Amino acid sequence: MSPTNARPVADEATTASPLSAPTAAATPNGTRSAFTGSLLASLALALLSTVTAIGFCRVFAGWQFLGPMLTVVLGVHLCCALLRMLAAPAYIAIPATLAVLFVLLAWKYYPDTMTGPLPGSLTWSQLLSDLRLVREQFPSAVAPVSTLSGFAVLATAATALAAMLSDAFAFRAYGRAEAVVPTAVLFLFAAALGADRDRVAVTAAWLACALAAVAILRLTHARAEHSWIGSSRRAIITALPVAVVLAGCAAASGAWFGPRLPGAHEKGLIDTSQHNDVTQVLSPLVDIRSRLVDLSDTELFTVAASEPNYWRVTGLSLFDGSTWKLPDGDIAAVSGGFAGTPSGSHEVVQQIHIAGLAGSLLPAAYSPVRIEDGSVYWVRDTGTLVVPNDGLRRAANYTVVSAVLDIDANELNASTSLSPPGGSMTGLPVDFPLSAAQAATEVTAGATTVYGKALALQNWFRTQFTYDLTVQRGHSDDALVNFLRTRRGYCEQFSGAFAAMARSLGIPARVAVGFTSGDVQADGRYHVFGRNAHAWPEVWFDSVGWVAFEPTPGRGQPGNQQYTGVEPQQVSSDGSGLPTPVTAPTPTAPTGSDAATTTTTPAASTSVPAGTTPPPTPGENTSGAAGGTPPWIMLLGLGVMTAALWALALPHVLRRRRAGHADLSPVQQTTRSWQRATRALAVLGLAPLPQETPLEHAERVGRAEGLDPRMLHELADVATAAEYGDLADAQSAQRSVELADQVVQTVRDLIGSGDRIKSWFDPRLAVALLP
């Protein structure tokens, strides 16, 4: 065949061959292919967002957060998909999605603020209030936090925004790995700050979903981005199972292999928690605007004692209108006995074993008077025990002796409240709500003594208010007034409001923070959990001292029934939030110095009381498989991970290499397009013979089943003109690229699954079949 037989290049460039393959978007098959790829990719990203939401199980106590979060996040994914189907441009789609996100947040978290189906200004106000609370409490909050807090709202909003960004990166910027970056940032953030809960399982699931999402996006964007797997509907359906299996194998191998690597259980180079391997810190701030009600089932500590009590941590006497804070006070190092036992009291010995409680404040029955075989700091004004050095540590044991007052109602009724310790205990901010002071006056109008007024306040709260953990967040800037208006709340609101209103009557009052008694278990110890965190008010009586009252419905301090009239109660252990009676242990704890045998210094002991399972030490493998892993399994896991990484990296490298030839001349581009087509045909065993011209080669292979001879002839014509006559322009070069793409895609459709899988790993096949 002579070069002079070539047809004019210009004519070929301006008129498409009648049998040239149309683009994917222009045919029914192409439309179905695009829809299939978009649907699969959308589902993959939605699944990735779902697993990212599940990853917050390490941040929140319980699973109540997951339902509302998934409703909002999946709703955002659905909105993004619908807007893409409607071909909405980004400047319309993004604001519309943000509006849908706000409506979904209002529907799930602030339904009482909505006007019909739409949120209102009050919704926005409450959302901002919750976000401000999160900002204030974030520095001191330690996971797991309450699922009823503003943290849940923030986590949901952040995950939904990440879902929107992932969709935009994937379908508007045609990204692949970029699409998983927003959710990856959130997942890593939750992992860094969260507790060690389902760590391996959640991480493996997230990695599998992320790898699968990247692979499916590569399939979906193949034609538009010249991807390595292919863009037809058949290619997507064929390659999808392999991509999913590879992603699952890689994630499973990492989940199995990672914890067994040397040093996997050692302490990290950077300690993101900085809380001595403990999980919760009881905040000393009782904010009546707060929504951080900790209902977690995390065990914080256990107590062996002869009788139940409230395990008090500290007292808060500074009030700024919404927040009760610790006052400045003198602190003294003490050991042994540090306070006298007042008359009219009895001693209670407590053997305290720390499990998950962090911080420096040691809980004990009020008021501590002696610590056995150890030393602590003592703040007399607030009745606080402070553990020195690193604070509370897991598995540490303390024996504390407390003098518990035997209080008589008649004595309280005859007592005055004129000389509280530690300065003024009746101070209020100048803008204290007049309505709150008036309510206190009205409630106590029939009482003539301090005790009578305190009891009247207590009973008013207990009978006229409702204990409610689902109270709406951030009602207004004046939380006290709103609490009195709605008459719904929980211990922090009840105790703070009681103390503030008592002060408005001139009664010295403060707020105590600590825990209810906890659950007596088979070992005879009180097991105290996060759900037992509590706050209650204390009133000063000159002849007695600080006396606790209990305004919170469903709660009652053991031993105080005679003057409060409230039976011992606390939150139930079944997660219902309903009160349950407090029971005393069957065995009797040792008293006096007999208890010292199990006591350790605050910074030392690793001994564990009977019935308590010791926690694993750093570096200890608790899986039971340490040292017994067959080498071949380890090598197999490494092999699978390496193969998966190679399959993901190979097309990226080849595309970058091809991008380096973008500045070729039209003749060079046309020649290279013909070479691409012949490499692909060689996979079918139809490589050109040494003596063949392009047209002769096209004539021979055009007779093969499944190949379009006119498409091959058209490409051979422009290649012949370029190779033998240097005749090519930009249009003909672009046409040659399109024809070569069609040849490669046709070959990909004709080869079997085995060859297609080989092309993921064999660079020679990958080059030949790379569109």
UniProtKB/TrEMBL annotation:
Signal peptide positions on this chain: none
Keywords of the record: Membrane, Transmembrane, Transmembrane helix
Region feature Disordered, mapped onto this chain: 1-27, 551-626
Pfam families on file: DUF4129 (PF13559), TgpA_N (PF11992), Transglut_core (PF01841)
Compositionally biased intervals (Polar residues): 558-575
Domain Transglutaminase-like span(s) in chain numbering: 483-553
Transmembrane segments: 34-56, 62-83, 90-110, 141-165, 177-195, 201-219, 235-257, 632-650
UniProt xrefs under InterPro entries: Bact_TGase-like, Papain-like_cys_pep_sf, TgpA-like_C, TgpA_N, Transglutaminase-like
Low complexity biased stretches: 13-27, 589-611
Keyword Membrane listed: yes
UniProt feature coiled coil, ranges: none
PANTHER family assigned to the protein according to its UniProt record, in alphabetical order: PROTEIN-GLUTAMINE GAMMA-GLUTAMYLTRANSFERASE (PTHR42736)
Name of the protein: Unannotated protein
Lineage of the organism: unclassified sequences, metagenomes, ecological metagenomes
